[in-house]
Amino acid sequence: NSASTTITVDPLTVAGAVTGGATVCNGTNSTVLTLTGNVGTVIKWQSSPDGITWSDIANTTSTYTATNLSSNLEYRAVVQSGACISENSTSATINVLPTISPVVTNSGSNFCLSGTSTLTATPSTGYGSATFQWQESSDNVNFTNIGGATSTSYTTPALTSTTYYRILVKVGATTCLTSIADSIVVYNPQILFASSGSRCGTGTVDLSTIVYPTTIVNWYANATGGASLGTGANFTTPVVSSTTNFYAEGSANVQSFNVGLTANSGTLGAYGGYGMFFSSVDDSKINSIDIYPSTVGTLTITLKNGTGTAIDSKAFSIVAGDISTTVLKTLPLGFSIPAGSSGWSLNYDMNINRSSGTFTYPNTTNGFSITGNTYDGDNITTGARYYFYNWSISTGCFSPRVPVTATVSPAPVITVTANPTIVCAGDPTTLTVGSANAGYNYSWSAGTTPSTGTTVSGNPTINTTFTVTASDVSGGANNGCVAIETVLVNVNPLPLAIAGASSGAISCSDSINLTALPLTSPTANPISLFTENFNGATNSWVTTNTSTATTPALADWTLEPDGYVYGGTTYHSNDSSQFYMSNSDVLGNGSILRTTLESPSFSTVGVASCNLSFYHNYYFYAGDTTKVEVFNGTAWATVANYVATQGTAAGFVNVNIPIDAYAGLPNVKVRFSYRAAWGYYWAIDNVSVTGAQANTFAWTSTPAGFTSSLQNPTGVKPAVTTTYHLLVTTPTGCFASADTTVIVNAGPAISLGNDTTICTNTTYTITATSTATSYLWSNGATNSSLIVGPFATAGTQTFTVTATSGLCSNTATINILVDPCLGISSSPEISVNVQPNPTNGLTSIIVTGLNGTALMSIYNLAGQLISEENIQRIDLRFSKQIDMSTYPKGIYYLKLNNNEKIIVKKIIVN
Predict the structure, then answer these.
(1) Which of 113, 183, 224, 506 has its C-alpha lying 20 to 30 A from 774's C-alpha?
(2) Euclidean distance between the first and final Cα of the chain, in Å?
């Protein structure tokens, strides 16, 4: 028998290789892995996160699909051929991208006008075979791919506007990760478009610009420097009367702040010609600085760059009220400084109060630094001087200024007149305006009555420029046109009238002197007697020089130009023109300066007062003698001298010297005499002499009787208390008045007693009671008493006496009623009472003791019968009221006659 057996020889196991490894997005993914080149069967698949630790996967096919992976895994297949041992295939890795997007950083994110930045994605590794794509956007919404930008970093081109960037991490066409957009901000405050405006005639004009939304527009009157006139894309100009350019400047990302000391912390002293250094990291503006002014005049602040070249400047008027060591004055500058500036400086010319002490440098805020001063140097840590305070700075991005034109076309002409053009203060003037354009409406500046119309009036009290605005709102061809014109009315001031007397109370025999002030009065246009501005190549002034020095001629009075420089100091007279100077310093040690500057002769005839005016800068040195002298035709006399410095090199001061003693003379001169032993200098400009004519005077009096045209009448003898009236009239016809009263003490007191009644054919003695030394009666008698009568007829007799002591006198009068006295009874029973008495209305007449009837009569002082009636007793008594209010004031007599007795009573009506 035989037997057989089969021996199966399996080939050796060949595991093969797994392909299909890839990079996938995290989370939702699917990758097919394929085993190839294997000999044997797949008994399982395995996965590992690290290539060391493997996990079995129940799959015996040659392909395996891995899905929804969230981390990197390595895959392999386990293959076995028959009874041969199993083998592991080569592996394939599926890289799973992270869930967190890369972060984009930049090398610069804020630029002014333009800039470039390098963008970098972090992390830059760990993305397997994923690809990258940079994108850009102008609005952070709509992004577009950047060609060729496929690495983890990207450098932008020069950007002129804000741009947003992001990076995409992609697997094939699938975007797995998108970074957060990074913005590169470009502040580009350019004026994209400027729209000019126009109008007809004087007024405002509307201008406009188009800019990016983040841009702030400031408007200026100048192409550089100056303060902003307004802010906004749209701008209404100030009133303009001719075509004018305004300038629009865009700005963005602006920060405003102050840098430097806020106030003085050292010792102040007046010095000129220094400054302070500064630097700026960013584009900036110096809006303003503060100073302590020390000198009246024009102060110029100059901006210089790092090479010392003047870039900009601005002038300021310093007035007397500005000068202080405690109160700062702000100077608006508006100087533009480019980014990265260093070694730049602000410089000043005329003296200011600078601070001396110990000061720390630099003073830095937001990248702007004050780095030193021109006394101590730049880039210092401490210094001994400080000049400017409270530097107001703005940093940011600023565009070049763009001119925008306000075009003004001519409006129909208006003509304005004043009649008169010269008035006395408060007097009226008639203002009239007219035009060929019938569509105009007219309105006038304040101070006219009415305020609108073609003809108005004004009553100015000072020199006044009246302004009329013509506006056309007719809707016609000239609709919207505005014309503005002015007319000047010069106003002569009223004189200051002052009336006085040498005594306010005198006796009747004394005299007084009256006085009136002033002799002259200010006028709107004083009379020019002499003037010299020294601006010509030559003049008629005479200079002398008897100095002792090596070269005396150096000290001659010399005409120097505006801006003349000596010893590092620049000179400007008050009107920035040519001036005279005598320089002692130039003669040197041991020199003696003796110079004079003498005017030609001029006349002051026709004026009553004079004033000498000039501008000068005198630098005092101990021992100097400086005199201002005036010649009267015979001799020189000093009218002023100076023992202290006057003004500054850039701030000549004005001097006014009254020289009334030289009025009315035909030959007058002015001389400036300078003596110094190696002193400094005296500079003089704009000499003038003015005069005023005398006022006229008119005196009158109350009581009337006195008149005079003298300014100061003397020996005036008022007989009674008198008020003197003064009328002062200026040469321009303006006048003012004043009064003064002189009390004249009365003569001796005198009395003649009460009025009385006598009968005809009787006499009466009148006695004058007085301290007088003499008497004169109305009938010529001269004794102190007078016997009158007898009188043949009834009536009233009046007698007057004048009592005199020395030159003073008084008078007195008495009235005597002469009565016929018919049938007068001696019966005492009847009585008459008048109540009230005196009276000015109702009065009662009461008669008692009357038996029967009586005739009651009333007479006036002249004896005329006023009223008459019969009365009858009632129980021996009669009473009656009469109204005296209808009678003129005076003395009346009541007469009662019952044929037995006559009774007379005096009634006074007041």
Answers:
(1) 506
(2) 200
